[in-house]
Amino acid sequence: MKINLPPKVKYTIDKIYENGFEAYIVGGCVRDAILGIKPNDYDITTNATPQIIKSIFSDFKCIETGIEHGTISVVMDDEIYEITTYRIEGEYKDHRRPENVDFTSKLEDDLKRRDFTINAMAYNEKEGLVDLFGGKSDLQNKIIKTVGNPNDRFNEDGLRMIRAIRFSSKLDFQIEMDTLFAIYNNAAIIKNISLERITDEFNKIILSNKPENIIYLFKIRLLNNLNISSEEDENKIEKLYKKISILKEIDKTLVKRLVVLDYLIEKLNINCKMFCKELVYSKKTNKNHDIILNLIKEIDIKNLDKIKIKKILNQIDRKLFEDYLDINRVIYEDEKNHEKIIDILKEIEENKECYTIKNLKVNGKDIMAQGYENKAVGQVLNYLLDEVIINPNLNKKNLLIKKIKEI
User: Fold this and answer.
1) Which parts of the chain have pLDDT scores under 50?
2) How many Å apart are CA 123 and CA 323, to the nearest integer?
3) Largest Cα–Cα distance of the chain, in whole Å?
4) How many CA within 13 A on the CB side of residue 37?
5) Which helix (H) or strand (E) holds 82?
6) Distances, alpha carbon 1 to alpha carbons 5, 46, 123, 131, in Å
7) DSSP assignment, residue 309?
8) Of the candidates 204, 239, 199, which has an alpha carbon nearest to the alpha carbon of residue 219?
9) pLDDT per residue as tens digits for the range 269-284
10) Least packed by Cβ within 10 Å: which of 38, 114, 144, 161?
């Protein structure tokens, strides 16, 4: 088969060959090219050592990205190309990183240390596709399978267990049974992996085209070993699986999908802590998550009118309110009320109706000019805002001053 290589990738490989060494694109870029997906980047592997690569590309800027692991980054026209020497990895004592890395002259040695067969293929135009572990066949059959013994692969790097789920979500593939059983049997290893790395993989699952594969985290007990879930009732987990597919109806916005997931878990009384609290997210993400989730739990969209909406908009960012509306529409399949509220929002915007103190036609100085001081100034402003929210036509300076005098 033939893969069309970008000019600079082809140039890089050809230049290494011209100097008496071999080189291939490897890993995810080969997988994606075979699937007809445009690769985000191209990793290049070679039997040339890092020092030789630096010598070959001495006319270019070379960055010692991870030279201890054999990687040199070559900069060409502001684009970075990572070139890594074939390597053999030593013992994995922490289930995450090898104790040592040794270089090898054999491509096979490098490929067999990789995680899944679909990521263990190499290619160049001279040799064609190098597929020693059936990766192309597994792509055709839509299977996620480890290279060699799955127990060995997961003991080397526990993060691979979640990566298997992530690839199944991204590509809509099935996890091969031996690989799936090995994840179940080695689930406790996940305790050794940092929550930051787990969060990164989890985010890729929930934002994929098949976010319902999050259910694997429950079924394979990965969440139990992270002390996020203690749910043992398989019927509840099955109910969640049937409901969780609505995540696909939510646009690929992390906060919104997290809110829906946490809402469903709470609604079904599943013994699971909130993902947003247990994984690693920014303060802003957590805050927005809490605001939207509280709106869903506390506000019935059917009872909203223009005044209530403006009072909500006074408290939260409009975008968060719109996120709430979208989630509410999906959860309750309530298109009618959703459209009604959207129309009200448009009307508020078109009429430039005031719902915040900063948009009042009077300010603190105007209030103080009427004889008010300190806390009383804020109290009067809040009183005027309440009046204007009820009666938008009142938001004129002379009318508001008159209203103050009536207090």
Assistant:
1) none
2) 44
3) 92
4) 13
5) strand 79-85
6) 13, 21, 10, 11
7) H
8) 239
9) 999 999 999 999 999 9
10) 38
CA distance 348 to 338: 16
Query: In the prediction, which pLDDT does 93 show?
Result: 62
Which is it for the CA torsion 104, 70, 130, 10, positive or negative?
Answer: negative
Instruction: Count CA within 13 A, CB hemisphere, residue 380.
Output: 24
Q: What does DSSP assign to residue 158?
A: T
Distances (CA, A) of 298 to 301, 303, 328: 10, 11, 12
pLDDT at 92: 57
Least Cα distance to 84 among 26, 30, 19, 38 occurs for: 26
* pLDDT the model gives residue 349: 94
80 Cβ contact list (under 8 Å, min separation 6): 63, 73, 74
- What's the CA gap between 50 and 71, in Å, rounded? 7
Contact 397, 360 (CB under 8 A): no
Check residue 361 and report its DSSP letter: S
**DSSP designation for 116:** B
Q: Residue 124 carries which DSSP code?
A: E
**First-to-last C-alpha distance (Å) of the chain:** 83
